[in-house]
Each structure stands twice: as C-alpha cells, then as structure tokens.
Amino acid sequence: MIQIRDLHKYFGTLHVLKGIDLDVDKGEVLSVIGASGSGKSTLLYCINGLEPIQQGSVEVDGTDVHAKGTDINKLRQQLGMVFQQWNSFPHLTALENVALAPKIVKGKSKAEAREIAAQQLKHVGLGEKLDVYPSALSGGQQQRLAIARALAMEPEYMLFDEATSALDPELVGEVLETMRMLAEEGMTMICVTHEMGFARDVSDRVAFFHQGVMEEIGPPAQIFGDAQSEHTRKFLANVR
Amino acid sequence: MEPTISFFSGFTPNDLLFLGEAALRTLWISVLSISIGTVLGVFFGWILFEGKWAAALTVAPVLDIFRSVPLIIQLVLFYNFAPIVGLNLDPFASGVVILTIYTAALVANVARGGIEAVGTPMRRAARSLGMSYWQDLRHVVLPIGGRAVFPAWVGVALGVMKDSALVSVLGYVELLKASQILITRTQEPFLILSIAGAFYFALSYPISRYAASLEKRWAQ
Amino acid sequence: MFDYNFHWRPVMKNLPDLLEAALLTLQVAVLAMILGIVIGLGLALIRLHMRGPLRWLASCWVELARNTPALFQLFFFGFGLGAFGLHLSPYMIVLTGLTFNCAGYLAENFRGGFQAVPDTQLRASRSLGMTAWQAYTRIVIPQVLRIVYHPITNQMVWAVLMSSLGMLVGFRELSGETQFFASRTFRIFEYFAVTAVIYYVIVKIILLGSRLLASRLFRY
C-alpha cells in the first residue's frame, strides 16, 4: 500500500505539490489526470524518490521513501516506472535492456536474468525482437520494452508517467493494450495520463490534479459523469 | 661586479618591444595565410561537394596528405624543396605558402560540410523559385551553410594562428622564436614564456568563447 | 628541370633507425593519450559536477591547453619549469606537453559527450534500483564513449603529429631522428620526404584500426 500524507514539493520557489493526501491499495489502478504543470508527474517522482520532498511523507508498504536510513535502491525495486520518453538504453539489445537490472541490481545469474528478460519481452509482445537494438524499434515497441524492463524487477507497483504522450497516434493503442493487460493481471498501477478513454475504462479510481492540489478523486463514473469540482468539469470539457 | 651582470642579463623594456614586434609578425603571417587559405579552402570544398568521384580521386587525397603529415615536416620539406625547383623563398614566404595550403586543406572539409548542411530540399526550394545555380549558392548556400560551419572555421583559424609558431623552425622570428632568443640571453624563461603565452591566450580565448556562444545561440 | 641530384641511398640506409624512432613516436603518443583520456575524463567530471577552486583549476588547464600553441606548452615544460629548478628529460618534456594538451582537448570532448546523454537515461537507470555508480558505469559512460570515439581517434592522430615537435626540444623521436641524420648528411629533403611518408602511413593505420575497432565495438 502506498500512503501519501501532506506532501509538499517545491522547485526552488515554485510550489508544485501543495499538500497531497492519497492512499493507493494493492491491486488498485489509479489514473491521475490534469493539465500539464499541475504536478501529477512530480507526484510519481516523489513516490519513487527521484525527487526529494520538502514536507510530509510517502510510505510504500510501511517504508518511508524519504527517510534518511531508507535503502532507496532496494525500495525502487518495488516500484517499476515507465517514462514519457521511453529511455531505452541505446547501447544494449532489447534482451540486454531488460536483463541488466535483474543481473546487477538483484544479483541474478546471467542465464537467469536473460530468461526473465525473454519471458517479460514475450509478455509485452516483443518475443521476436530479443536481439534487436532499440534504434530499430518503433516508439510503441520501445515503450513496451520499457514496460518489460520495469516488470523484470518483479515490482509490486507500476508507475506510468504519461507513457503514451510522446508516441505517434497510431502507436498509442499497442501501449495502452499492454497497460490494460497488466491491470487485468492485478498489478497495482498509478497512471499519469492524458488518455481519458483509458482512465475511464481501466481505472478503479481517477484523481484530478489542478495547480498542485488534488481537486477531486473518485470512481471513473463519478469523475466523468458527475464531477463535483468546477475545475474538473472545465478540464474534461476541454479535453473532449 | 654582480649588478652589471644582472644588468646585461635582465629583461629590459627593449625586450618587450622585441616581443611585441614578433607578436605582430605572428599576427601578420597568420592573417595572410588564413585569408588566402580560406578562399582556396572554400573553393576546394565546393569541388569536393560537386566533383563526386572525380574529386575523390584527385583533390581529396592531396588535401588529405596535408592533414596527415606534421606541419613542421611540411615546412622543412617545402623550404628545402623550393630551391630544387629554382624558387628562392625566404622563411616568411615558405611559411605563408605551407600555412595557406594547410589552412585550405582544413577549410575544404569544413566548407564541404557547410554545403552538405544546407540540404537538398532547401536547395530545391531555391531552384524552384527560379534562382540560378549561382544565385542559389550566393543567396542560400553561403548564408545558411556558412552559418552552420562558422564556429568550425573559427576553430581552424585559431588552430592555424597557434600553429604559425612552427614557422620558427625555418628561422622566421615570430613570437615563440623571439621568446626563445630572449630566454637564451636573459635566462628568464618563466617570465618570457608567460608573456608569450598570455599573448596567444588573449587572442585565442575570447574568439573561441565568442564562437562557442554563437554556436549555442544558432543551435536554438 | 631540376638542378639537383636526389640521393636516396643514405636515407634507405638509415630507414631501420627511422622506423625505430617511429616506434618511439607511437609510444609517446599512445602514453600521452592514455594519460590524457584518464585526466581528461577527470577534468570533464570536475567541470560538470564541482564548484570552487578545483573547478577553477580544471578550467584553467582546459583553456590553457586549447588556447596556446602546443609548441608553447612544450617549451613551458622544457624551459619554463627550469625557473623552479625542474629540468625534465626531452622524453618527459614531450610526454608531459602532449599529455597536458590531449587532456585539455579530450576534457571538452568528454564534457560534450556527457551533456549529450540525456538526464532521463540516468533517471530510468535509477528507477530500476541501480546505484549512481552502476548507472554511470553501465549506462552513461558506455554511451559517452560511443559519442567521443571519433574525437578520440582524431586526437590520437593529433598526438602523433604533435609529437614531431619533439625535434625542437631535443627529443629523438621520428622527426628528431630525421633531423639528426639530415643535418649530418645535408640530404634534408630526402630524409624529411621519407619521414613524411612514414607519418602518413602511421596516420592511415590509426584511422583504419579505429574504423575496424568501431565496427566491432558499436553494433547499435
């Protein structure tokens, strides 16, 4: 379970997150929507400790992410992350991309790591591309590679940071399909997204962020059908 | 008698003048070689771009030699070759000839890169507007390509300016040779080398910084 | 046409000596490059990540190496340090001078290489639980090496060409040895012509070797 309490985040003097309280249960799929600059991506970075926080706390399965004594590298193994820019490692083949972290972070044997990698690549539909370098893959394939790379660490949670925003429109579908598959398998997911269809159909809850504040959170039916906040209604009217 | 000795071996204001004159000679031989060499180099660059395989078989390997043999060897070779073919060149003239060809060899690559940087679509667009081949070169390729490679050209020019120190091997008294002469006489190597180094630095550093800032600005 | 008789026999007689000197040239160039790569990497990282006096020193090194003539740098290590009672052997003068120069130029290449690898690569690595060290050695540096591979090759060529300055500080590498024989026999042109060919061949071998190595190293 991820517990966020009174989270404040500043970039210099810019107050990007203004006191967020949020619980995400095991097995839940949460979509986070909102305009760009509303702080939703920053939230993900604070959850896995890529950005320091100034106030409040983030706990993952009872471990305080930002406490001094926390082994952040160990904790991050629980938190798979997929970025907007897919960030595949260009100097490694697809298989090596996925096998590297299990090998050097988890200390698996080379053979074991490669087996896990091959399995995960098959899982996301890249079973034919094991020995291909990322430069020969489409954006959608590279993003699925990034998902496989995160899954190979056997995380408890997956964080998606606008995983489809940088993709050509015709490639968005294959990545959303992979995410939907993960959701159906029961993965706990926090998805920052602009894909309202995905948010409505796949998520258990949807959170709307506005200028660093979580304006509203609830089941998709409530957010999309009967939003309480003026800002939420305005945002949704504009994206449709 | 000690004071007299130090009087003769010390560094005097006259020596500073001597260094100043030598610095001017460094500037003069550099400016001359860089100017002529750049014009030649742009011409060679154009030949390399347009000439295709014919240029690849003729001009390219010749220019390549000047980039693959130490400049100091080129200078000595040419200085000793000129009399063989009946040319009586002084160190300055020999230095200018070799530095010019050396500059041209380096600029040729830069210039070709500049023409390539403009790209076929833009040149097609220019021609489609009814520009002639030469108008296209003058009004499209030169400004756009020139801008793309200007920082690289500055790098070449500064390199040649620094390399002009090698003409000293022929006995031409440019800045570094003058320093060497003074060091032998005054036994003040640190002071004199610092002055000479400061001159090169004061010339090269601001220009290279300026070129780098232009590159950054133009990259946006 | 020529009023000159070419005498190649003495050169050919000394060819083994010249080739041996060429090995010394290669040795000093390779050593300077190895030291230059290590120091250059350090200078680049200092300039990218540190503040204070160490960063200032690193910047001084890089700017002095890039904005003064290589010959000046050799003279400085040759005579300039004499002012402090430090007298280096000709071999050490060339090695330190070349290392100083190569490290400065390579530092800028490395800096550009690090800046060319997006921060997001580091983020993605860290998000997988890699330590900063793992992320650097496994993800960032391999990509930097690819980016700077070509500049390193060029710098290696420069190091070989630059080592010819050893001739002016009494080091008998290829050029120094050539000058030694040439001045004994007065066959200056012939000796230096052969030496020019040797340099050309060395440079071509380096470039060819680099290309072969690249095709094995980089398959992406």
Describe it for me?
Chain C: Keywords: Amino-acid transport, Cell membrane, Membrane, Transmembrane, Transmembrane helix, Transport. Chain C: The chain crosses the membrane at residues 21-50, 70-88, 152-171, 191-214. Chain C: One of its GO terms (cellular component) is ATP-binding cassette (ABC) transporter complex. Chain C: It is a multi-pass membrane protein. The complex is a heterotrimer of chains A (240), B (220) and C (220). By secondary structure, chain A is α/β, with parallel strands linked by helices. Chain A has one domain: Rossmann fold (3-Layer(aba) Sandwich). Chain A contains nine helices and ten strands. Chain A has helices spanning 40-47, 72-76, 94-104, 110-123, 139-151, 169-184, 196-202, 220-225, 230-239, and strands spanning 2-11, 14-24, 29-34, 55-60, 63-64, 79-82, 157-161, 188-192, 205-210, 213-218. In chain A, strand 1 and strand 2 (14-24) form a beta hairpin. The model of chain B is unreliable at 1-8 (pLDDT under 50). Chain B has 220 residues and is an all-alpha fold. The radius of gyration of chain B is 22 Å and the shape is globular. Chain B has a domain at 28-164: MetI-like fold, CATH 1.10.3720.10. Chain C has a single domain (18-217), classed as MetI-like (MetI-like fold), CATH 1.10.3720.10. Chain C contains eight helices and no strands. Chain C has helices spanning 9-49, 53-67, 70-78, 90-116, 119-127, 132-162, 174-185, 188-217. The mean pLDDT of chain C is 92. By secondary structure, chain C is an all-alpha fold. The longest helix of chain C has 41 residues, at 9-49. The B-C interface holds B 65, 68-74, 76-77, 80-81, 83-86, 158, 162-163, 165-166, 168-169, 176, 179-180, 183, 188-191, 193-194, 196-197, 200-201, 204-205, 208 and C 1-4, 63-64, 66-72, 75-76, 79-80, 82-84, 157, 161-162, 164-165, 167-168, 175, 178-179, 188-189, 192-193, 195-196, 199-200, 203-204.
